[in-house]
Amino acid sequence: MLSLVVGLVAGGVGGAVGYQFASGGSRVASVLDLPVPGALPAANLPAGSVEQVAQKVTPSVVQLRVHGPQMTDEGSGILLSSDGLILTNNHVVEPAATGGDITAVFQDGRSAPVEIVGRAPSFDLAVVRAQGVTGLTPAQLGSSSNVRVGQEVVAVGSPLGLSGTVTSGIISALDRPVRAGGEGSGQDTVLDAIQTDAAINPGNSGGPLTDMQGRVIGINSAIASLGFGNQVGSIGLGFAIPIDQAKRIGSELLHNGRATQAILGVIIPAGRPEDGAAVVQQVTPGGPATAAGIQAGEMITKVNNRVINSGDALVATIRSYSPGSTITMTVKNVTGATRQVQVTLGSQQVGTR
Questions:
Q1: Which terminus of the chain, N or C, has fewer Cβ atoms within 10 Å?
Q2: Whole-angstrom Cα distance, residue 171 to residue 193?
Q3: Alpha-carbon radius of gyration of the chain
């Protein structure tokens, strides 16, 4: 059970709020007697304000309550249709994937059981559908292709079960390789993430990160935490899956129940940025890297114009492309000589219902 302790802060000014009396004994009205000004109508909220974004986006965000055989969890989701199609994180619904139940709670107070349509764990994305509902408000999806560092953003979700919570901040960085399960999780789920300082906490996962027009540009998915015991919360380092990637994966999950992932055909050790490049440990025979002449022991330092400074950066970058994309890679061999090669990425089916 969540316990919230709310403190009252009092100033150091003595006395009470009340009437003042002039020297002649006449009463002077205080602010307590003044009429309350009318609230600003929603239609008149300042364009591009957090208030306007909240009014637009909040009805399109749902709380997901998940009960599985081993654990109970909760998160958020984004409405894709008026009849209950929802995009969320895989890690939100995964506890109930092999048994259990999921309930969607909508902003108008309704709730409905949810079934899983498809999951893509390597992208930390899932599509689910609430049953027997109509008249919902789908979100407006934007594009992550033109987002900028410093751009203002809004996050909406259900942190710690507090549904409809709105926070704001900026985009702190782009193309940030993040392991969704933390540093010990390996490369099964490495996100090519948008970083934001908008407050994101447990329960925000699967909710939207929007621009100031209320268009979804990312799916909030992970946070960095100082990790003192069980104290996990926002320290201003939140990460969202770019919506352009989420749209492609979500569409494939909706129509096929599975998704596709671009592959290079190499094995890269997990590495930190100080390694300065992605070292090719092994090349898959017959794969795209072999066709491009890349060899074991060489280092990949760039993909197109993006600098690759670790194994995780290469994994995240390759997964950000669609299968069949042609990219230019900068490769350094063991003697230090560099060359550029063209690689057409292969395809691998991922995900499950």
A1: N
A2: 11
A3: 25
Closest CA to 277 of 313, 328, 224, 235: 313
The pLDDT of residue 46:
74
Q: Which residues pair with 347 in a beta bridge?
A: 262
DSSP characters over 52-115:
HHHHHHGGGEEEEEEE-SS-EEEEEEEE-STT-EEEE-HHHHGGGTTS-EEEEE-TTS-EEEEE
pLDDT digits (tens, 9 = 90+) for 141-180: 999 999 999 999 999 999 989 999 999 999 999 999 988 7
The confidence score (pLDDT) of residue 348 equals 92
Contact 154, 108 (CB under 8 A): no
> Residue 33 catalytic?
no
Q: Alpha-carbon distance 262 to 249, whole Å? A: 12
Say if residues 155 and 167 touch (Cβ distance below 8 Å).
Answer: yes
3-state secondary structure of 31: helix
Identity of the amino acid at 97: A
Name the token pair of 136: 């919902």
The one catalytic residue among 60, 73, 91, 168:
91
Of 174, 176, 159, 169, nearest in space to 212 by CA:
169
Residue with tokens 């063991």: 334
* Residue corresponding to tokens 């108008």: 108
Mark whether 205 is an active-site residue. Answer: yes
CA 61-64-68 angle, to 5 degrees, is: 165
| Distance, CA of 217 to CA of 124 (rounded, Å) | 16
Selecting among 60, 163, 205, 234, the annotated active-site residue is 205
Is there a catalytic annotation at residue 108?
A: no
Structure tokens at 98: 């092999």
Distance of alpha carbon 302 from alpha carbon 177, whole angstroms: 14
Instruction: State the catalytic residue, choosing from 124, 192, 197, 211.
Output: 124
DSSP 8-state code for residue 304: T
Reduce the DSSP state of residue 269 to 3 states and report it: coil
